[in-house]
TrEMBL record:
Annotated CDD domains: GAT1_Peptidase_E
Lineage: Bacteria, Pseudomonadati, Pseudomonadota, Gammaproteobacteria, Enterobacterales
The family this protein is said to belong to: Belongs to the peptidase S51 family.
Keyword Transport: no
Keyword terms, alphabetized: Hydrolase, Protease, Serine protease
InterPro entries: Class_I_gatase-like (IPR029062), Peptidase_S51 (IPR005320)
The protein, known as: Dipeptidase E
Coiled coil (UniProt feature): none
Length: 241
């Protein structure tokens, strides 16, 4: 299995999407002879989907086609060399994946045919068991919580532990702690901007463009920051490095 789960699509100052992960992604493309990808852009509500596909095509150096042009979306996944899942609104994205009948086709493509999955922000969220740890608003009345479950632990992308002056609401840490209190058997990996988890085969690694760590939240345990994935041993079925 090949998963790139990125906290965000761009860092401040980046001119290209996924710029901080280009080295790892393009190395994977080269090793697997990947020349094209299917973009799932459903999370993008105020962005032109074709424009996003062209932007990614230019940045990644491969042909990128948006799945909304496919007459039968599941067939586009069955023929895909690589799957790109954009950031945006997680609730919209997950709902559309279910409505378009793409949950099982994506799962089978990634798990059985080892088609690489690259998801950022909302695309990272939906790769986990559910979207209960998204930061987004449920913009539709009809919403679905279960997601793709490609990665077995909940992720909170765009994680920030700064305290904003004048903000009287709960911090991100407090919100994630609430999730763990309600779901004491589950853990949450908090990914800061410019960081990603990478599953390649049976190995799980972590990368941060800023040299920052990730946090792991567990109910009843002290939250700590880590620089490598050995902290996730026992939580995931991968070799953590």
């Amino acid at each position: 299995m090949e998963l790139f789960l990125l906290s965000n699509g761009k860092l401040s100052g980046d001119s290209q999407p996924l710029g901080y992960a280009h080295e790892q992604i393009k190395a994977m493309f080269s090793a697997r002879n990947i020349t094209s990808a299917v973009l799932i852009p459903y999370a993008l509500i105020r962005t032109d989907w074709d424009a996003k596909a062209l932007e990614l095509e230019d940045a990644l150096g491969i042909k990128v086609g948006s799945i909304h042009h496919a007459g039968v979306p599941s067939e586009a996944i069955e023929q895909a060399q690589c799957i790109l899942v954009s950031g945006g609104n997680t609730w919209m994205l997950n709902q559309m994946l279910h409505e378009k009948g793409l949950i099982v086709p994506v799962q089978r493509a990634v798990r059985e045919r080892e088609v690489p999955y690259i998801g950022w922000s909302a695309g990272c969220n939906v790769a986990t068991p559910s979207i209960r740890t998204t930061n987004d608003m449920p913009v539709r009345n009809s919403v679905v919580l279960p997601a793709l479950g490609l990665f077995p632990v909940q992720i909170n992308p765009h994680y920030i532990d700064a305290h904003i002056s004048g903000h009287m609401g709960e911090t991100r840490d407090e919100r994630i702690a609430e999730f763990c209190a309600v779901n004491p058997s589950e853990s949450v990996v908090a990914l800061r901007e410019g960081s990603m988890l990478h599953v390649s085969g049976n190995k799980l690694s972590y990368y941060s463009a800023k040299g920052e760590g990730f946090k792991v939240f567990r109910h009843g345990l002290e939250t700590q920051e880590y620089q490598d994935t050995r902290a996730l041993s026992g939580l995931v079925p991968f070799q953590c490095i």
